């Protein structure tokens, strides 16, 4: 008897179906727990979920997100966004001040090209070395050390310019050091979101959107602000003000940025694998070449053509900075 008894079913079938009916499937997926058999045999193990069986075709779970308290994740996100704001503002300041200073030192546009080329080469080297550095030392040490090194370069630039001891070789060298650590910083910065959110593409993209908003605000409003500061007080005060802002950003990052510790850190083999991947995939090669060309054109327009046009349109380099800000 029993409401779920099937015609011709055995005692075992009756026990299984009656147990399921009594439970009402309220326990969710059947766990591996014993079911008493009426015939006195050994316990019957219920089937485990499909994903737990050997050879399951279920996709593996993505890497786990950061399990620390939400306040810790939020603090790291705030630290990254605040330091990105400070670093991008200094980057805009350097793009304004340094080409003008180079031209004023030598009186030649060729000096602007030489300084720009040195910084571009340093940025490329820093970007290449940034990946192995993050693999070896971790995200936070590379990111914070890079910001501190850039702050030191900014302070040296201010001191030398204020003391009248800034020659063209020193200017090119300091600018190159700044961009060397900028390249490494960008690699570490790009590694933070995956470390915080694991395989959650939606959260990674949301964080990336906030970071891009910060960059766009600085990219639009920064040049106008920097140009007006230079027009009002000259290059020296502008260097000092925005070097202090960069130092504040480095301090915020050192205090707040705490991404979760990485697992096993691969050695140089990881970097070699990346080069092989690039060499073996035509799509990646073309994408890298196109991106490099776009960066080269951007630097040519931003660090050469814009400044040259502004200098032609204005009477002095200080006044040209204000013109360039609105351009």
Range of strand content: under 5%
What would the principal axes of the Cα set say about the shape?
A: globular
Helix count?
Answer: 10
Rg on CA atoms, Å: 30 Å
Question: Major beta sheet, specifics?
Answer: 2 strands, antiparallel
Counting copies of identical and different chains, the oligomeric state is single chain
With strands numbered from the N-terminus, the spatial order across the biggest sheet is 1-2
Query: Roughly what percent helix?
Result: over 70%
Class from helix and strand fractions? mainly alpha
Order of helices and strands: HEEHHHHHHHHH
Cα-to-Cα separation, first versus last residue: 88 Å
Average of pLDDT:
76
Number of strands: 2
Please mark out the parts with pLDDT under 50 across 5 or more consecutive residues, or reply none: 1-9, 23-38, 40-62
């Amino acid at each position: 008897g029993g409401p779920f008894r099937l015609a011709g079913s055995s005692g075992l079938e009756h026990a299984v179906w009656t147990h399921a009916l009594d439970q009402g499937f309220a326990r969710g997926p059947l766990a591996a727990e014993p079911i008493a058999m009426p015939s006195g045999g050994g316990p019957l193990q219920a089937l485990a979920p499909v994903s737990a069986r050997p050879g399951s075709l279920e996709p593996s779970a993505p890497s786990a997100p950061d399990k620390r308290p939400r306040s810790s994740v939020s603090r790291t996100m705030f630290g990254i966004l605040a330091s990105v704001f400070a670093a991008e503002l200094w980057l805009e300041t350097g793009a304004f001040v340094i080409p003008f200073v180079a031209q004023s030192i030598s009186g030649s546009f060729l000096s602007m090209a030489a300084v720009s080329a040195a910084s571009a080469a340093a940025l490329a080297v820093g970007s290449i070395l940034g990946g192995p550095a993050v693999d070896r030392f971790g995200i936070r040490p590379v990111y914070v050390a890079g910001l501190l090194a850039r702050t030191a370069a900014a302070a040296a630039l201010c001191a030398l310019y204020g003391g009248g001891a800034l020659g063209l070789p020193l200017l090119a060298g300091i600018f190159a050091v700044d961009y060397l650590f900028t390249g490494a910083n960008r690699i570490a910065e790009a590694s933070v979101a995956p470390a915080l959110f694991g395989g959650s593409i939606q959260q990674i993209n949301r964080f990336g959107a906030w970071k891009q908003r910060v960059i766009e605000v600085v990219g639009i409003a920064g040049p106008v602000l920097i140009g007006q500061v230079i027009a009002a007080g000259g290059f020296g005060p502008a260097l000092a003000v925005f070097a202090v802002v960069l130092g504040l950003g480095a301090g915020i990052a050192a205090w707040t940025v705490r991404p979760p510790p990485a697992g096993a850190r691969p050695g140089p083999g990881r970097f070699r694998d990346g080069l092989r991947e690039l060499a073996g995939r035509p799509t990646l090669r073309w994408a890298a070449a196109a991106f490099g060309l776009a960066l080269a054109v951007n630097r040519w327009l931003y660090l050469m053509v814009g400044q040259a046009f502004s200098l032609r349109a204005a009477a002095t380099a200080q006044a040209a900075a204000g013109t360039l800000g609105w351009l």
